[in-house]
Design brief:
Layout lengths: L2 H11 L4 H8 L3 H8 L7 H11 L3 H5 L8 H8 L5 H22 L1 H17 L8 H9 L3 H25 L2
Helix pairs in contact: 2-3, 2-7, 7-10, 8-9, 8-10
């Protein structure tokens, strides 16, 4: 059995999709697919990560002669109900999606505020010098609440995405 077949077998044993494995290893799903079809071979660092994740020896992953992993480590790995890796991966995907939606949702209140401010600026020739034309337009048109909601959504979404980015770097 070649390395790619062993990776696919162990991935399926843990109930992970190619995308879940890719997220765990911080690479693309296509890279995992190329490994499993033996079009490419994982590098040393990824082999070590795979060995730890699958709880098998590096020899098992790399040597074609070794058809079965150490059965003791397989038994201990399969005794866990649902892998922590899979749960963490799904939760991380949900947080990233939620953060992205918050950032996208912030566009609508901003668009309302910008439209109202632009209309106010075009109708009036003056603005408070210390606030600038745009902020004066937002304040005078009464669209400070949508502007505040948009800013809040953007900040919260950005914090969630930033935290996931930094967490993913570990």
């Amino acid at each position: 059995m070649q390395t790619g077949e062993k990776i696919a077998l162990q991935r399926k044993r843990l109930g992970l999709s190619q995308e879940d494995l890719a997220l765990e290893l911080k690479l693309s799903r296509q890279a995992v697919s190329r490994w499993e079809t033996n079009e490419a071979t994982p590098g040393t660092e990824k082999i070590i990560q795979l060995s730890r994740l699958f709880q098998v020896s590096i020899d098992y992953l790399l040597l074609e002669e070794q058809e079965t992993p150490d059965m003791e480590t397989v038994r201990s790995a399969t005794s866990q109900p649902e892998g922590d890796t899979q749960r963490r991966s799904k939760m991380r995907q949900r947080r990233i999606t939620f953060g992205g939606w918050l950032c996208a949702a912030s566009l609508f209140p901003f668009m309302i505020s910008i439209g109202a401010a632009t209309g106010w600026i075009l109708r009036h020739n003056w603005y408070y010098a210390d606030k600038g034309a745009f902020l004066t337009g937002v304040i005078e048109s009464g669209k400070t609440i949508p502007f505040g909601i948009g800013a809040f959504l953007l900040v919260v979404g950005g914090v969630i995405l930033g935290a996931e980015y930094l967490y993913g770097q570990k």
